[in-house]
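Hi team,

Filling in the usual template for the complex we talked about on Friday. All components are listed, including any nucleic acid strands or ligand strings, so the model treats them as one assembly.

SUBMITTER: L.P.
PURPOSE: interface mapping
COMPONENTS: four
RESIDUES: 394
SEQUENCES:
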Amino acid sequence: MNRPASATQAYDKKREQLLRAAATCFNEKGYSGTSLKDVARHLGLTDAAIYYYMNNKRQLLFECYLRAVQAGEEAMTLGEDHSGVGLERARVYLTRHLELLCGESGPFAIMSEIPALDQEQRALILNHSRQHSRRFEALLLQGVKDGSIKDCDIRMTGNAIMGSINWIPKWFRGDAQQARQIVATFPAVLLGGLQCA
Amino acid sequence: MNRPASATQAYDKKREQLLRAAATCFNEKGYSGTSLKDVARHLGLTDAAIYYYMNNKRQLLFECYLRAVQAGEEAMTLGEDHSGVGLERARVYLTRHLELLCGESGPFAIMSEIPALDQEQRALILNHSRQHSRRFEALLLQGVKDGSIKDCDIRMTGNAIMGSINWIPKWFRGDAQQARQIVATFPAVLLGGLQCA
DNA sequence: AGCCTATTTTAATGGCTATTAAAATACGCT
DNA sequence: AGCGTATTTTAATAGCCATTAAAATAGGCT
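RESULT (copied from the run log):
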């Protein structure tokens, strides 16, 4: 039939809700600790209904990670495109990433169960993840070179900052007030230590 | 019989190894994603043999968390007992915590699956965890009052710093070189931003 | 009303895994 | 060698859960 846009739109919308419900569950109880029944309950459905929207449980995790990765990339690109010294660009990225993580498009899944993906999915996500780290390290290096960031172990500095961000989905529960505090405080804390004396 | 110390010592030693193996598995694949067979394989045993040392799988997670919590408390106490301004005490704590996390007594389990514990275990661990946060916030507050730390949202600042630490078990794999870098870099990055201008 | 499709449910199936009990093995000690 | 305990394995049980196919429902369109 002529599957009019209205139908597909409803489908896509519900698919989104499904991913959000899954992210919520995964963040709370982990991937394997979450049953499809858990996810379905969030939407008032039966577990089997999920297969109308998703091939299998792994796909659910994979697409959650895709969403998370895309948010990171959007923020990173914004930082890279910003004109200014390295420290400023890092701040633009970081702030935007936090806004996304804690904003209306959430919740996002904590990226802690990459081993649960299958070969190809894992490779793809790991790729994005490593790219993200490298791009951030590039911003830091730039900052060191342009004198806005003090000399430091760039790899470890990146690890320290990224870890703080990665952990957020574990405790942030969508409170708007808290979201503002995160966006206001995290960049200051995480980047303040890098400033040149 | 006269269960001589030698026997109990061997038992305790193997129990420790078991906890370390479990922590390794849990960090990689999550609590539910880890089968007792996985853990047993690390020790060259069968899954059923684990029950000689542990009541059940949950107990394994619980005792992993106890170890992690104790390491944090040891470090926190060291910081609190140190004489100096708030920022210095926070640095002592943080450095020691990192040394422990990345040192010979590891690996420690990432504390991300508290919901998998049963009622009492969960309450106990949550209690310790919250105490830990409050004690750290107290150090920060002290720093603000004695002028070593700039005015900031203490709760969120604590969240930012703790998140970075909490995430470490997810990527640190026991490399000694890396451990040194972590201990050298993390305190500078995570506390540098708090210094008064 | 009645058709056609979209959506959801019901009802299997099979595999994995925690847990237990009983049997087997290893090992120190006499 | 042989007893007695410590440790580990084998084998069985039972429950949960992902996945599938077929049946049921709902809603738009004519």
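MY TAKE: Residues 1, 3, 7, 10-11, 14, 45-46, 48-49, 52 of chain A lie near DNA strand C (CB under 10 Å from a C1'). Chain A has seven helices and no strands.

Thanks, L.
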